[in-house]
Specification:
The chain has 234 residues and is mostly helical. Helices cover 74% and strands 5% of the residues. It folds into two domains: 1-131, no CATH class; 133-234, no CATH class. It has a two-stranded antiparallel ribbon with strand order 1-2. The N and C termini lie far apart (57 Å).
Length: 234
């Protein structure tokens, strides 16, 4: 009787886990398809040419014709879905999977990436129609994505694929944990501050500020991790 109860509980957990994965997969497909659905509604009133890339000064330097835009959006969606699939399967090839990389965390990051790519696609369609400054929108989306990653990073477990993967963080779980808790706070605060700045300054003024903050978010945790390593060695 006891073995039957245990088998039932294990089976129930597997079913619930499978349902959660299928829900996440379905959600990703829905999110990724939103720009194409929006294009079906507004494609006939889009300009003949739509900018798809901008230089650091906020000037468009690559364009797509209105008729080719669905292909471009489909490629964006495909990239997002591919990245999600890769992240979802990371645990199977992570040498530390026995105790560390949380599958739910990897899926959360994957859904976040797909959502950001979807928002970029929508922005690409919305901006030409409404006269919105797309460069400010891009800075806003990336800043919010940094804040999202900071929230994830704060509690992420040691692994070889997601996070600040330095020799010292991979060698020591304590170094990993302390480095990512600092990085999580910095990325979240930095992302929110940059997002707020997009409403206060011009895109041209925002660019140097954004890149300075982005570089700092990488350098500060890396230096902190190295100092922890030096301290641990006496």
């Amino acid at each position: 009787m006891g073995d039957e109860v245990i088998d039932f509980q294990i089976g129930r957990r597997l079913i619930l886990k499978t349902m959660k994965l299928k829900t996440a997969d379905f959600l990703v497909l829905v999110i990724a398809s939103i720009p194409l659905i929006y294009w079906l509604q507004v494609g006939h009133i889009m300009p003949d040419r739509v900018p798809t890339h901008w230089n650091i000064r906020g000037q468009a330097d690559a364009w797509q014709s209105r008729d080719d835009l669905p292909v471009f959006l489909a490629v964006l969606a495909g990239v997002g879905i591919l990245l999600y699939i890769i992240l979802r399967t990371l645990k199977k090839i992570d040498p530390k999977r026995s105790a560390q990389l949380n599958e739910a965390t990897a899926i959360k990051v994957g859904v976040g990436i797909v959502t950001m790519i979807t928002m970029l696609g929508l922005l690409m369609l919305y901006a030409p129609l409404k006269g919105y400054d797309i460069v400010s929108g891009v800075f806003l989306l990336i800043s919010l994505f940094f804040a999202f990653l900071g929230n994830v990073m704060y509690n992420i477990k040691q692994n070889y694929f997601i996070g600040i993967r330095l020799p010292w963080t991979l060698d020591s779980e304590d170094n990993w944990t302390r480095t990512h808790r600092l990085a999580g706070v910095l990325w979240f605060v930095g992302g929110i501050c940059c997002a707020a700045l997009t409403f206060l300054v011009t895109p041209q003024s925002m660019a140097p500020v954004f890149f300075t903050v982005a570089i700092s978010l990488l350098i500060i945790p890396s230096v902190y991790s190295f100092l922890l390593f030096r301290r641990s060695k006496g």
